[in-house]
Every structure is written in C-alpha cells, then in structure tokens.
Amino acid sequence: MSHLTAKRLKYYREKARMSPAELAALIGVEPTDIIDYETGRVVPDMRIYFKLSHVLDISTDELLVFEKNAEI
Questions:
Q1: Residue 58 included in any domain
Q2: Residue 72 has pLDDT above 70, yes or no
Q3: What is the total count of domains within the chain?
Q4: Does 72 reside within a domain?
Q5: Rg (Cα) of the chain, in Å, rounded?
Q6: SS3 sequence of 34-61
Q7: pLDDT at 64
Q8: CATH at residue 54
Q9: Cβ(23)–Cβ(13) below 8 Å
C-alpha cells in the first residue's frame, strides 16, 4: 500500500466517524490490521480493498488511485 493510499484509508475512516475497531469488525479483520493498513506496514489483498470501499461508501478508485483533485 502506498503512503498516499494508507493516508486516504485513515482519512475516509475518520470521515465516516469510525474507530479502527469498528471498521475492523465490519470487514472481518482485527483492529491492529486496520492500523497496519493505515500506516502502510501491511498491504491488504483486493478482497479487503473491496470490503473497505463498500463499508466506507467510496469507490475502490477513491481509495487506491491518486487523483489530482482528490481530497487527500
């Protein structure tokens, strides 16, 4: 996971007003996994990206692709 993708994940989680534990419970991982994703220590597989985008109500593109005019 790129640094920007990790940063966007944290941004969208916080925007959804969720804790790492809440997001983890919704996608079926441990809270420490969310923290590892957000710091870039661990790269989730595509299945996790799809779950994250669904729960956070964003497209996978918003999470994975850097856009010039993106919020993050």
A1: yes
A2: no
A3: 1
A4: no
A5: 11
A6: HHHHHHCCCCCCHHHHHHHHHHHCCCHH
A7: 82
A8: 1.10.260.40
A9: yes
Distance between CA atoms of 72 and 70, rounded to whole angstroms? Answer: 5
Question: Could you give the CA distance from residue 16 to residue 9 in angstroms, rounded to a whole number?
Answer: 11
Tokens of residue 23, six digits: 């997001």
Q: Is residue 71 part of a domain?
A: no
Instruction: Say what percent of the chain tops pLDDT 90.
Output: 71
Average pLDDT of the chain, as a whole number = 88
Let me know if residue 70 belongs to a domain.
Answer: no
User: What is the number of other CB atoms lying within 10 angstroms of the CB of residue 28?
Assistant: 10
Over the stretch 28-60, which tens digit does the pLDDT of each residue have?
999 999 999 999 999 899 999 999 999 999 998
Specify the pTM. Answer: 0.85
Closest CA to 27 of 3, 68, 56: 56
